[in-house]
Amino acid sequence: MTEPGGERNARADAGRRAGSRERDAAVVRALLELHGRTYAREAGIRLRNTPVPLYRLLVLSLLLSARIRADTAVSAARALFDAGLGDARSMAESAWQRRVDALGAGGYRRYDERTATQLGDGAELLLQRYRGDLRGLREESGVSERLQRFPGIGPTGADIFLREAQGVWPEFAPYLDRRTREGARRLELPASSRELARLVPREELPRLAAGLVRVALDRKAADEVLAAAEA
């Protein structure tokens, strides 16, 4: 008996969808294995919902949002923390030159003087408004806009912060912004945040976001992921 055309087409469509899901899963596995390390982890931040790690993530977000290589921003963050400037109180009370020197030690020289000022002013603001604890900001509405009140944090910096913080602030998950969707398109993954979020467990969303940002910024990284997924 000949299979009706409608049933035949439906079975073919189902087969294509299953094949697409398998392909997307393979790409995501390769992405997480090769480039799924969060920027916070690279900077030595063990991210938790406590004041010091959240403040360090804010500092890192400021550094990453400048037009400078990501590895330089990460190195500068590590240098600041190694210099004892890993909490809002220490940053606010430090001398401007000490901040400049730490940024320079991390290779962050192009914007070091301006950034040193922004770090000091931002730490003062955090202490005055939230007693040094960004969890107070979390409890307010318009978190992205409030993050942008800190000197040096614009829309890009707020996106960076929330992409990484969604692991400890789950109410913002899935936070897969324009940059992550650019990476998804480069890998021919689903374009919508909701569909992307279905590809990983919730706890892996920060790693997925970081990996997608890396391939958005680096065509070679994207090619590497695609080659690994097909191997």
TrEMBL record:
Region annotation (Disordered) ranges: 1-21
Keyword Hydrolase among record annotations: yes
MF GO annotations: endonuclease activity
Domain of life: Bacteria
Keywords: Endonuclease, Hydrolase, Nuclease
InterPro entries: DNA_glycosylase
Name this polypeptide is given: Endonuclease
Organism: Streptomyces chitinivorans
